[in-house]
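Structure ticket #2291
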Amino acid sequence: MSNKLRLISLACFFIPIFTVIISYIISIKLNLVEMCIPIFEGCTSISRVGRYEPVKFFFKPMMYLYSISIFFFWIIFSQEINNFKIKSKDLIILTFITVIFLCLYITFLGESKIYSFFKRIGIYLYILSIVLLQFSSNRILINNKKKLSRFFNYKIVRTNYYLSIFLVISGLILLPVLIIKIESFPQIKNIISWNYFFLIQLFFLLFFFSLKKLTNPTTA
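Resolution: structure written out below.
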């Protein structure tokens, strides 16, 4: 199993988190958003953090870089497991769907109504597809433990698998909350979005730690 997969998984974890945090700090400095701890207080959304000039000129390119990273992550992952005669066609399809809708969200991140419409479609379908992609990847690893145990720490793989199950179930439960308006607690949507975002990225960090570093890696 290739060690470069470990490096790409780290990139997939750090690029979006670094981008969002830096964009948020700059937006605060420029008085574009309120200052708070968004994962607890939900004073602003992730979209608002990267929406305005000049922040968007940093936010958008970095998020495009993230979309490239996740594309190569799953393409390489699929190629690696194919060497063990493990089917990964569904992963490839989900990868293209994930990247397309993430790019749709990034491209149409703006203020007008039509931009908002495409932004919402892009982000919801991106979240749906990447959560399914993570769940499917973990399930493949769990179902092929005998073939892949040399390359993975399965205690961490199981943790990642349970995380992906939690994201699927919680996503189905919380989707109505994200769609409807809640006048009494408008911040709830932002709180859910920030925490869900970080949990999605946690998959890549757990993957990094689960993949063993081999001194002489082979795929045979």
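Closing remark: The CA atoms of residues 10 and 209 lie 10 Å apart.
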